[in-house]
């Protein structure tokens, strides 16, 4: 039984052969069918992102350590095995959410932001412990640093001047730097000011009664009076009183000019009901990201207007009601869940019956888990294990022992660093680049290929040098799939003739024995005897000429 709560880091299994997914639980929701789904934040391993981003992450780690004049955590005084395993502990946070069934949880783990002051061996000494320092965006394929930055310098901090002595002035004209909006030492009393503000509210209520659009939005007198009592009306009244030297009569004449009473509206009145509903929907989706709210929902509103409306909306009863509903919904949501122990056999598990292995890697039915019972573990090269698991492509017939299989599922890699492909020791030998599948079966299960051997004769070797103008080796090499057009018999005859010529004229090689003795079938024919024309041959020749003329000039054949 596994107990999970918010916000735990857990292992999720989405495939029987792939490593576990590492996620952080944000919510636990119960579906209509009664099952529990977890809304989780995704973490990615090094094997899940591209090689170019991996190089960028390593470069970022080295640059940070150079700036801080310290050695990189991944390049510290560690062995090759420790460096190899440390890279399996590195994760990349993302802002991506997904929902997964809670029954796929296989265990809990720990993920923390990389602490550069902590020894890197602390991550290797703890089981199921991971770290991250960068944020990965799977849609944009980018990496960003996930830590704050202390902005120090003249670009971010003010230069504080020296403190003035007592009675010393700074020679700044305050009238040019500031503008007075209200004088607390005005000649009016507090009662007179309050009475003037009551008159300003009454003028605002009357102005809303005369305005058609306002009467539609606030049909009742109470709603109009409440809108007239908002801060925008009071600020306008106090500003008018200050601009007219706190003269009540002149300030009242400005509030009610000849054209009608002045109507002051804020963002709460300017927005329609449909715009308010769209704002609440956008706020539910994006939170307080006002740029995205303006871009996707309210492009006709300015950013200032949206922010002002947000802080006014927080003072309304609707916000209070939504806050209470969210609190009640959060209270009713699941905060913890019990996951039953997963006991189903893994499909990659190599079956074992009564202490005997089934036919795996070409082994016979009587092969045990002994040193000669099959291939060694691809990670630790062990030959004995309580259980074996198939790993990698099926045609490779690789397998892992129990401990290396659990390491592969949790950390997404092999426990031992991979060696060069010189695995010619033990049962890992191969024949013609085909892996050996068995060493315990009486029958050979090596899947061999048909071997061939090109054995050139001495005549062929000599022809490469004697007949270069005919063979054209470079041209033939550029066309490996086109057979040479020179018959072998002609080539060998030509080579043999040239060999005789060079031997009688200008010998190139001085040897006691000949280079080769060509077979009878490949020897050139003997030279023809000198021509000797007899009478019968002469007559035959004449007959042939007559027949030829007859065929050529006979009208029957024209």
TrEMBL record:
Residue segments, region Disordered: 417-447
Protein name: Metastasis associated 1 family, member 3
GO cellular component, one term: NuRD complex
TM annotation in the entry: 533-553
Residue intervals of the ELM2 domain: 148-259
GO molecular function: chromatin binding; histone deacetylase binding; sequence-specific DNA binding; transcription coactivator activity; transcription corepressor activity; zinc ion binding
Alphabetical GO biological process terms: negative regulation of transcription by RNA polymerase II
Residue ranges of domain SANT in the record: 266-318
Composition skew (Polar residues), residue ranges: 438-447
Location relative to the cell: Nucleus
Record InterPro entries: BAH_dom, BAH_sf, ELM2_dom, Homeodomain-like_sf, MIER/MTA, MTA1_R1, SANT/Myb, SANT_dom
Family label: Belongs to the metastasis-associated protein family.
UniProt-listed Pfam families: BAH, ELM2, GATA, MTA_R1, Myb_DNA-binding
Domain BAH: 2-147
Keyword terms: Acetylation, DNA-binding, Isopeptide bond, Membrane, Metal-binding, Nucleus, Phosphoprotein, Transmembrane, Transmembrane helix, Ubl conjugation, Zinc, Zinc-finger
Origin species: Oncorhynchus mykiss
């Amino acid at each position: 039984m596994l107990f999970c709560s918010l916000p735990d880091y857990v292992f999720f299994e989405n495939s029987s052969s792939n490593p576990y997914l590492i996620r952080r639980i944000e919510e636990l929701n119960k579906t209509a069918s009664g099952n529990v789904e977890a809304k989780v934040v995704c973490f990615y391993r090094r094997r899940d992102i591209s090689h170019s981003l991996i190089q960028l992450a390593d470069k970022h780690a080295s640059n940070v350590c150079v700036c801080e004049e310290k050695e990189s955590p991944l390049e510290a005084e560690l062995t090759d095995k420790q460096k190899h395993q440390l890279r399996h502990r590195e994760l990349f946070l993302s802002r991506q959410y997904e929902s997964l069934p809670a029954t796929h949880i296989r265990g809990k783990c720990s993920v923390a932001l990389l602490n550069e002051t902590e020894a890197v061996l602390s991550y290797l000494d703890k089981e199921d412990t991971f770290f991250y320092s960068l944020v990965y965006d799977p849609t944009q394929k980018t990496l960003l640093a996930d830590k704050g930055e202390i902005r120090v310098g003249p670009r971010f901090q003010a230069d504080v001047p020296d403190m003035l002595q007592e009675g010393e002035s700074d020679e700044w004209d305050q009238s040019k730097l500031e503008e007075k909006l209200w004088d607390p030492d005005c000649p009016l009393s507090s009662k007179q000011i309050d009475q003037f503000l009551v008159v300003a509210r009454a003028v605002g209520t009357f102005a809303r009664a005369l305005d058609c659009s306002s009467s539609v939005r606030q049909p009742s007198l109470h709603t109009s009076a409440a809108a007239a009592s908002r801060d925008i009306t009071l600020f306008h009244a106090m500003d008018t009183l200050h601009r007219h030297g706190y003269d009540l009569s002149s300030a009242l004449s400005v509030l009610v000019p000849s054209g009608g009473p002045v109507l002051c509206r804020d963002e709460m009145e300017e927005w329609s009901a449909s715009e308010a509903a769209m704002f609440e929907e956008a706020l539910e989706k994006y939170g307080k990201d006002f740029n995205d709210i303006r871009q996707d929902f309210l492009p006709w509103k300015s950013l200032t207007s949206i922010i002002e409306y947000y802080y006014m909306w927080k003072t309304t009863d609707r916000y209070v009601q939504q806050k209470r509903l969210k609190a009640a919904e959060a209270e009713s949501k699941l905060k913890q869940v019990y996951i039953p122990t997963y006991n189903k056999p893994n499909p990659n598990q190599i079956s074992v019956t009564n202490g005997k292995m089934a036919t795996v890697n070409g082994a016979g039915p009587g092969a045990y888990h002994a040193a000669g019972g099959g291939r060694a573990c691809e990670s630790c090269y062990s030959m004995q294990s309580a259980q074996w698991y198939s790993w990698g492509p099926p045609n490779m017939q690789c397998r892992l022992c129990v401990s290396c299989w659990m390491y592969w599922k949790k950390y997404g890699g092999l426990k031992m660093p991979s060696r060069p492909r010189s695995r010619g020791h033990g049962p890992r030998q191969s024949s013609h680049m085909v892996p050996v599948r068995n060493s315990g079966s009486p029958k050979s299960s090596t899947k061999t290929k048909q071997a061939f051997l090109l054995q050139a004769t001495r005549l062929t070797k000599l022809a490469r040098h004697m007949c270069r103008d005919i063979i054209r080796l470079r041209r033939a090499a550029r066309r490996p799939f086109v057979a040479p057009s020179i018959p072998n018999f002609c080539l060998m005859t030509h080579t043999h003739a040239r060999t005789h010529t060079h031997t009688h004229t200008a010998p190139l090689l001085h040897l006691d024995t000949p280079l080769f003795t060509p077979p009878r079938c490949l020897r050139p024919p003997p030279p023809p005897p000198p021509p000797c024309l007899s009478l019968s041959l002469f007559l035959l020749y004449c007959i042939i000429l007559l027949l030829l003329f007859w065929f050529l000039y006979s009208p029957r054949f024209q």
